[in-house]
């Protein structure tokens, strides 16, 4: 039995030391309903993925174990719980990165604004480093299922790493991950492919925001970008796609949320 009331992912910054805390059992179970879908807050896939202090991760055993009772609390109320997998990319700073390194991105162009953090200039990933980031998402998805989550949502919105690759105002690459729409969306779709293979398409959702320019991450043709992603995603039969925020009246891009096989249950 499912219904259509969904809790949006909401960053709380209460996962001290990047480990989810017991108070989250109460927080998430209070928001759970029988048959309702909850999306957990943005959860880092690797040590380089954090962009806010005290955001949770799912890249250590300790984090996986800490998520388990939180997921159990939601399940006890009959809720369905997806973990939002996230990499902040350049929306981070050296204090948050392993060994004080520069945050990684598709570019070495930094952010001008200091919104919630003083952002540090990023380091542009070499082409041969990109498969390892896809792999981080795959391992994190596997860990999320191990923690008991019913599925995962890929955070490909709001100016974070995947969105940085997709948008032509940020992506200045000349390799197969930059330039054409197909190239800019390659990273996102490689992650979708890896995750559907790892945990099955019915357990994978995605959040995109083609029209948003949050974190200085805009695109010159969001309509075309959104349509391209919507059509490409149809090939994978994933559980749902969510087009987050910044609705544009009259846009033909499907949205905001399209449910697929998730409705049929797992
Ligand atoms: C405090 C706060 C934290 C948020 N954290 C996330 C997040 O972790 N992941 C995400 O995709 N969106 C995040 N969002 C965006 C929300 O999920 C939602 O899309 C946004 O608030 C718009 O919905 P609303 O009009 O109902 O507020 C956050 C929003 C707020 C206000």
UniProtKB/TrEMBL annotation:
Residues 247-266 are annotated as: Disordered. SUPFAM superfamilies: FMN-linked oxidoreductases. Keywords: Flavoprotein, FMN, NADP. Belongs to the NADH:flavin oxidoreductase/NADH oxidase family. GO terms for molecular function: FMN binding; oxidoreductase activity. Coiled coil: none annotated. This is NADH:flavin oxidoreductase/NADH oxidase N-terminal domain-containing protein. Residues 3-237 form the NADH:flavin oxidoreductase/NADH oxidase N-terminal domain. CDD domains: OYE_like_FMN. PANTHER family: NADH OXIDOREDUCTASE-RELATED, NADPH DEHYDROGENASE 2-RELATED. Its cofactor is FMN.
């Amino acid at each position: 039995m499912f219904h259509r009331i969904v809790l949006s992912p909401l960053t709380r910054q209460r996962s001290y030391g990047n480990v989810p805390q017991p108070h989250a059992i109460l927080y998430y179970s209070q928001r759970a309903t029988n048959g309702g879908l909850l999306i957990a807050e943005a959860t880092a896939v690797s040590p380089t993925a954090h962009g806010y202090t005290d955001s949770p991760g799912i890249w250590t055993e300790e984090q996986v174990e800490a998520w388990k009772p939180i997921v159990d609390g939601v399940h006890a109320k009959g809720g369905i719980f997806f973990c939002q997998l996230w990499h902040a990319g350049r929306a981070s700073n050296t204090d948050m990165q392993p060994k004080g390194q520069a945050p990684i991105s598709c570019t070495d162009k930094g952010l001008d604004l200091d919104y919630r953090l003083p952002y540090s200039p990023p380091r542009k990933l070499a082409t041969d480093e990109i498969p390892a980031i896809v792999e981080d998402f795959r391992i994190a998805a596997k860990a999320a299922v191990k923690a008991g989550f019913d599925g995962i949502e890929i955070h490909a919105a709001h100016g974070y790493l995947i969105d940085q690759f997709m948008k032509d105002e940020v992506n200045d690459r000349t390799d197969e991950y930059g330039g054409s729409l197909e190239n800019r969306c390659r990273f996102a779709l490689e992650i979708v492919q890896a995750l559907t293979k790892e945990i099955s398409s019915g357990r994978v959702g995605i959040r995109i925001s083609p029209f948003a320019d949050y974190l200085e991450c805009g695109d010159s043709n969001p309509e075309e970008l959104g349509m391209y992603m919507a059509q490409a995603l149809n090939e994978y039969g994933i559980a749902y796609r969510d087009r987050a925020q910044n609705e544009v009246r009259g846009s033909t891009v499907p949205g905001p949320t399209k449910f697929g096989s998730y409705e049929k249950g797992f």
